[in-house]
Design brief:
Blueprint: H1 3-9, H2 14-36, E1 44-48, E2 54-56, H3 57-71, E3 76-81, E4 88-89, E5 96-104, E6 115-123, E7 138-144, E8 148-154, E9 157-164, E10 169-174, E11 185-187, H4 198-207, E12 219-220, H5 226-236, E13 238-242, E14 253-254, H6 255-268, E15 272-274, E16 291-292, E17 294-297, H7 299-310
Parallel strand pairs: 3-5, 11-12, 11-13
Antiparallel strand pairs: 1-2, 3-4, 5-6, 6-7, 7-8, 8-9, 9-10, 13-17, 14-16, 15-17
The chain binds 6-O-phosphono-beta-D-fructofuranose and manganese (II) ion (MN).
6-O-phosphono-beta-D-fructofuranose (F6P) binds next to loops.
């Protein structure tokens, strides 16, 4: 079943369908840039973004591609992008807001490791982009990996589509994704080990405990692209942790266009997420580029970590 056929078979509103088709179109262009172009699209652009991070050429290409597709949609009022300090006004009367990380994991582009694009769709209402994640209408990511996949949560379910690269159509390959209740993968940048809260250290040590036969109980996987780390863990069962650290006292990941959409997708796949004080989807954002500590994954694993904070 193609994405279009899937949308025809559902009763999502036409505006949501249109936004999904915009993301489809933009992501197919991105697939082309990443996989079919040999021109000079790699490497740093020489610019820094609002977070003082080096901007890669492909960050800007991705940003332009997705802004251009959303510009064709009169239902979108504003775009918030990781690459732009201010929000971008499109249509005053538009019913929806789009927040995006157009190219997630961009430090991995030049070394042939999967990257992604992340989207959070909110209603255009009071509060603007500063709405709780639980009120998202649609959350979506695209992973450009060994295959290109589009995964989204809408109407209380999470679905995954794989790009047929010959005819450039997304095919429903992962209907109603349900993440395992527990798993054996833990994903964290252990370079931060010595500046993390003691509960996180305790959890990592718990993951490293051996079973009675002296064999490992967990496996460590951290690729450095949030989308790819999350996608793997969602399908296999695991936990992703990016806590506050000495280098990132407020956490590394952005609440509105990274954590919220990933948490929304996790929720409707049966997973859990937290900022280590409350469910991430219940956090009221204070500013558009806000960072947060972020934990997402299999329910039992997230609850095990949270239980260490209670003793
Ligand atoms: O977008 C931020 C990001 O690149 C994520 O994709 C990834 O999970 C994280 O940062 C990696 O951060 P660090 O390099 O500190 O491990
Ligand atoms: Mn990112």
């Amino acid at each position: 079943m193609t994405l279009q056929q899937f949308l025809n078979s559902k009763n999502f509103n036409s505006e949501i369908n249109q936004i999904l088709l915009n993301i489809e179109a933009g992501s197919i262009k991105m697939y082309g840039k990443l996989n079919e172009e040999t021109s000079d699209i790699f490497g740093p652009s020489g610019e820094k973004n609002i977070q003082n991070e080096e901007v890669q050429k492909l960050d800007l290409i991705a940003n332009d591609i997705f802004i251009d597709v959303f510009k064709t949609n009169s239902n979108i009022a504003k775009i918030l992008s990781e690459e732009n300090e201010h929000t971008i006004d499109l249509n005053n009367n538009g019913k929806y807001l789009v927040a995006m990380d157009p190219l997630d994991g961009s430090s991995n582009i030049d070394v042939n490791i999967p990257v992604g694009s992340i989207f959070s769709i909110l209603e255009n209402k009071e509060g603007g982009f500063l709405q709780n994640g639980v009120d998202q209408k649609l959350a979506c990511y695209v992973i450009y990996g060994t295959t290109t996949m589009m995964v989204f949560a809408v109407d209380q379910a999470t679905h995954g589509f794989t790009l047929n690269t010959k005819n450039k159509q997304y095919i429903l390959t992962h209907p109603n994704i349900s993440t395992p209740n527990t798993g054996n993968i833990f994903s964290i940048n252990e370079g931060n080990f010595n500046s993390m809260e003691k509960e996180i250290v305790e959890f990592i040590n718990y993951c490293k405990e051996l079973n009675p036969n002296g064999k490992r109980t967990h496996t460590g996987r951290f690729i450095g692209s949030l989308v790819a780390d999350f996608h793997r863990n969602m399908l296999k069962g695991g936990i992703f942790i990016y806590p506050t650290t000495a280098d990132r006292p407020n956490g590394q990941l952005r609440l509105i266009y990274e954590c919220n959409p990933i948490a929304f997708i996790a929720k409707y796949a049966g997973g859990e997420s937290t900022d280590l004080t409350k469910n991430i989807l219940d956090v009221k954002p204070k500013n558009i580029h806000q960072r947060t500590a972020f934990v997402v994954g299999s329910k039992q694993m997230v609850n095990k970590l949270l239980s260490l904070y209670k003793v």
